[in-house]
Amino acid sequence: SEDGNAEVVAVAESSAITLGERGTFGPFDGVLGSSATQEAAYEACCRQVVDAVLSGTANGTVLCYGQTGSGKTHSVGIHTEGLLPRALSHVFATRATAPASESWAIYLSCMQIYLENLEDLLNLGGEGVKIRAKTPSFEEPPEPAAMGPPTHPI
Q: In a designed cystine with 110, which of 11, 80, 90, 121 is the match (CB 3.0 to 4.6 A)?
């Protein structure tokens, strides 16, 4: 790479990756390389989700998953022009062109699991999200469940 470090994962094509001598893996829906921009990540991963929410055909969830230090927080971009600010800009740009007679209620949740704790990233300095066990049936063990996602009107 440009900084002198060897790349472990390389984009073989837009739908596959190469892991050194281990070979090429895929196909995936899409693969973004280390030089991909935040805009490219939004277009590849989020635009369809936000469009479906705005059309009223779905609720939307974008999940960033990966090992520590892989760039999830940077990609979401709470403090940068990442996925979250771009999604909000998309929502508000669409709202600005909607008929004035339409009534909108916009809610947002942004959570992370860190050290086995569920944290609300929009409630900085607040308590973590409480987890409880669902009432078990005789056939199944209890399942952990969030006590409702923390939502914030925006």
A: 121
Assess contact for 76 and 84: CB atoms under 8 A. Answer: yes
What DSSP letter does each residue of 115-151 carry, written as one string?
A: TTEEEETTSTTSPPPPEEEPPP-SSS---EEESS---
> What residue has token string 């999200």?
129
User: pTM of the prediction?
Assistant: 0.70
pLDDT digits 0-9 by tens, 130-145: 666 555 555 655 554 5
Residue ranges, the chain, pLDDT below 70:
1-7, 12-13, 78, 124-154
Report strand pairing: 144-146 vs 131-133.
Answer: antiparallel
Q: Which residues contact 13 (CB under 8 A, 6 or more apart)?
A: 26, 31
Number of helices and strands (H, E) in the chain? 4, 9
Could you give the CA distance from residue 104 to residue 100 in angstroms, rounded to a whole number? 10
